[in-house]
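re: the backbone from monday

yeah here it is again, tokenized this time
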């Protein structure tokens, strides 16, 4: 074994390779203090200057005398947040990342920062309903039009583009709740052809299962509340892309104000460290659940990209390293029967959200669309017997046995 001086070892930074290595190490040395292993929580709203000359030096070159980056006010930057941003950028293969207070703060800040009045965007359906709501209502008030096209219809997507006016193509992959898969190659090609920026919400996918930037997508967005955090204990969102685009977003974040708290950033970094092992377990269990339900006589249909019956299975096999931890399915029965099945389950909690260590289950007709009539829900593609099962890290056999006993009761 080659002897290495301790000081030399401390300065040595290995080149990360795999997802789990990146998740544990990237950005970890950026905000160290007192030789602590973990990134410290820099809990401050403002930063001090040692002298008037120190302030002038900062304004002219934005650095301390030792070359370290610094800020003047917490809304513009924080070392804890910066370390997490570096780690997230590395995970997605991007140059930089900008962290926000929630996933919705991320998508709304991105669009408000980039879109001029009179612009036009095209988005696919079966995306997160609050994103659609923001585009179709709030942006419309600013004179920004939105065209929604069917997921998977790339001819319709191209036909909806208005050359010179359309500024964004937006899709989610996998989608919520039917787990449709966007063709990253085709979306990126359309973006280049018409000089339109492209955005993929990859919350359900995670950087463990897919990396849209590698296909030429301009922006990747995550609700970091979900898989990236993994513990259902914080709200955060992130946008990842090229350095120049992220600089513009970071500047705009200082104006729009959707800044994540340093405590939440610290918790997010802690969650990211186990992302690889958590997602691997969730991938394994979800695929087993999908296969089990696909053969069960009390299930009418299963929506999971890892099985051949899913309309985008071929695309998922080509683009994804794993198929994710969410399985949607239709119970053979009505609204009440479906609720009875959910109530009979012992492991999952009835709750919105996904991506945490605990399994969560919901009936979208009741959880997200309760205020709508059955006819209105059906027009949106939400059936009364639809179930979305966000699988946690419990033992696979325990989950399967729980499903089996609950289905036997209906």
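seq for it, each position gets an aa:
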């Amino acid at each position: 074994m080659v002897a290495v001086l301790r000081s030399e070892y401390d300065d040595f930074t290995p080149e990360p390779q795999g997802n789990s290595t990146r998740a544990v190490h990237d950005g970890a040395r950026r905000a160290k203090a007192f030789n602590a292993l973990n990134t410290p929580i820099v809990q401050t709203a403002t930063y001090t200057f040692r002298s008037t000359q120190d302030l002038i030096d900062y304004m002219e070159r934005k650095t301390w005398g030792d070359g370290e980056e610094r800020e003047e006010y917490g809304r513009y930057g924080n070392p804890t947040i910066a370390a997490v941003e570096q780690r997230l950028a590395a995970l997605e293969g991007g140059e930089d990342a900008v962290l926000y207070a929630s996933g919705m703060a991320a998508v709304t800040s991105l669009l408000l920062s980039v879109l001029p009045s009179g612009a036009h965007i095209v988005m696919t359906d079966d995306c997160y309903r609050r994103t659609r709501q923001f585009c179709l209502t709030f942006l419309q008030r600013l004179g920004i039009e939105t065209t929604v096209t069917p997921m998977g219809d790339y001819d319709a997507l191209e036909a909806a583009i208005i050359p010179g006016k359309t500024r964004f193509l937006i899709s989610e992959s996998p989608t919520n709740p039917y787990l449709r898969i966007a063709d990253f190659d085709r979306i990126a090609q359309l973006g280049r052809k018409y000089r339109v920026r492209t955005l993929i919400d990859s919350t359900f996918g995670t950087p463990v299962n897919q990396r849209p930037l590698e296909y030429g997508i301009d922006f990747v967005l995550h609700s970091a509340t979900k898989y990236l955090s993994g513990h259902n204990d914080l709200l955060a969102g992130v946008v990842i892309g090229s350095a120049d685009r992220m600089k513009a977003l970071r500047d705009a974040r200082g104006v729009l104000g959707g800044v994540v708290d340093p405590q939440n950033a610290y918790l997010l970094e802690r969650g990211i460290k186990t992302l690889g092992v958590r997602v691997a377990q969730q991938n394994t269990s979800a695929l087993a659940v999908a296969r089990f339900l696909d053969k069960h006589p009390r299930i009418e249909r299963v929506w999971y990209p890892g099985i051949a019956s899913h309309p985008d299975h071929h695309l998922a096999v080509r683009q994804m390293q794993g198929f994710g931890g969410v399985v949607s399915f239709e119970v053979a029965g009505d609204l009440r029967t479906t609720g009875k099945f959910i109530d009979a389950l012992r492991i999952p909690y009835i709750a919105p959200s996904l991506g945490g260590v605990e399994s969560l289950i919901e009936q979208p007709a009741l959880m997200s669309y309760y205020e709508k009539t059955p006819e209105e829900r059906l027009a949106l593609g939400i059936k009364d017997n639809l179930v979305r099962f966000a699988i946690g890290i419990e033992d696979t056999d325990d989950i399967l046995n729980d499903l089996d006993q609950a289905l036997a009761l209906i």
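The mean pLDDT is 92. The chain is about 40% helix and 15% strand.
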